[in-house]
Amino acid sequence: MTKKTPAHIILASVSPRRSDLLREFGIPFTAVAPKAPEITQKEFPLKTPREIAIINAVAKARAVAREHPKKWVLGADTVVVHEHKLFGKPANEREARKMLRDLSGMEHEVITGVALVQFRENQFQQTDFWVITKVTFHPLSAERIAAYLSRVDVMDKAGAYAIQEEGDTIVKEIDGSRYNVMGLPIERLLDEIDKLGIFKK
């Protein structure tokens, strides 16, 4: 008799933060790096930040889903937005300093687009959504920014900061899901997984 493989999802990401969150909340998963280019606001200036986050999340999930038919695949994309401008991952430390200066003392939005996709019988089944969290920074001096960047590697982080890595030293207030700021709105994700019945026998 063939042993049935326990149900699990595939995370279309190699982000340590997203993996940590899935483990923390007991969601069984396998992580796979997606082969999907991300679009940017510069390339598509007429797209809203929400649309860009969703498009990237769906592209990641679909790319992996094609390689793993019948499995549910989770894709996510997080962007930081201030005054309609997207703050992506900084290319270097100079750009990271500028991002933190621009966000200093200001409120901005963290938007995560999420897609759950299954590829079955040459068709995609899909549900997607976005979650917005408002974040306000303390006023940041040049010295404070330099100290933060000396302690935290921000090169792979949208907006050049990570709430889970000494974030309280620069973040004054959060309105919404803290997990969303970390890159995955786990509360809403759990609801959607339950609606789809992914782990139900």
Keywords for this structure?
about 200 residues; alpha/beta; Maf protein; about 25% strand
How many domain modules? 1
CATH topology: Maf protein
Count of separate DSSP helical elements: 6
CATH architecture: Alpha-Beta Complex
| Structural class by SSE content | alpha/beta
What does the largest sheet look like?
A: 7 strands, mixed
The CATH first-level class comes to Alpha Beta
Structural account:
The chain has 201 residues and is α/β, with parallel strands linked by helices. It has 6 helices and 7 strands, in the order βαβαββαββαβαα. It has one domain: Maf protein (Alpha-Beta Complex). Strand 3 and strand 4 form a beta hairpin. It starts with 8 loop residues before the first strand and ends in a 5-residue tail after the last helix. It is globular and about 55 Å long. Helix 3 packs across helix 4. Strands 1, 2, 3, 4, 5, 6 and 7 form a 7-stranded mixed β-sheet that branches.
How would you briefly describe this protein structure?
With 201 residues, the chain is α/β, with parallel strands linked by helices. The chain has 6 helices and 7 strands. It has a single domain, classed as Alpha-Beta Complex (Maf protein).
